[in-house]
């Protein structure tokens, strides 16, 4: 746990709603201080539940870079989906 960790069911549900709306998840020092990450789901027609994630030190992944990283992860997720179908 860090000071940024989700602590309540209400916070968790709000975060899950946000992830569903924007199509990706972020973590800014919620699991480990100094670390940020972005994750996207890997599409799957077979029912597999997969995700791809990129992590970096917080100073290397400022909020302004998240959309660019999401686009790269989405591209990689599609390629990964092709390998698993």
Automatic annotation (TrEMBL):
Q: What is the official name of this protein in its record?
A: IclR-ED domain-containing protein
Q: Which GO terms describe its molecular function?
A: DNA binding; DNA-binding transcription factor activity
Q: Where is the IclR-ED domain?
A: 1-85
Q: Which SUPFAM superfamilies match?
A: GAF domain-like (SSF55781)
* Alphabetical list of InterPro entries matching this protein: GAF-like_dom_sf (IPR029016), HTH_MetabolicPath_Reg (IPR050707), Tscrpt_reg_IclR_C (IPR014757)
Q: Name one GO biological process term.
A: negative regulation of DNA-templated transcription
């Amino acid at each position: 746990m860090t000071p940024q960790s989700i602590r309540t069911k209400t916070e968790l549900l709000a975060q899950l709603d946000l992830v569903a709306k924007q199509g990706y998840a972020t973590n800014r020092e919620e699991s480990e201080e100094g670390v940020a990450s972005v994750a996207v789901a890997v599409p799957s027609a077979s029912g597999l539940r997969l995700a791809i994630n990129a992590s970096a030190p917080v100073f290397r992944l400022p909020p302004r870079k998240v959309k660019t990283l999401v686009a790269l992860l989405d591209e990689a997720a599609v390629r990964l989906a092709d390998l698993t179908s």
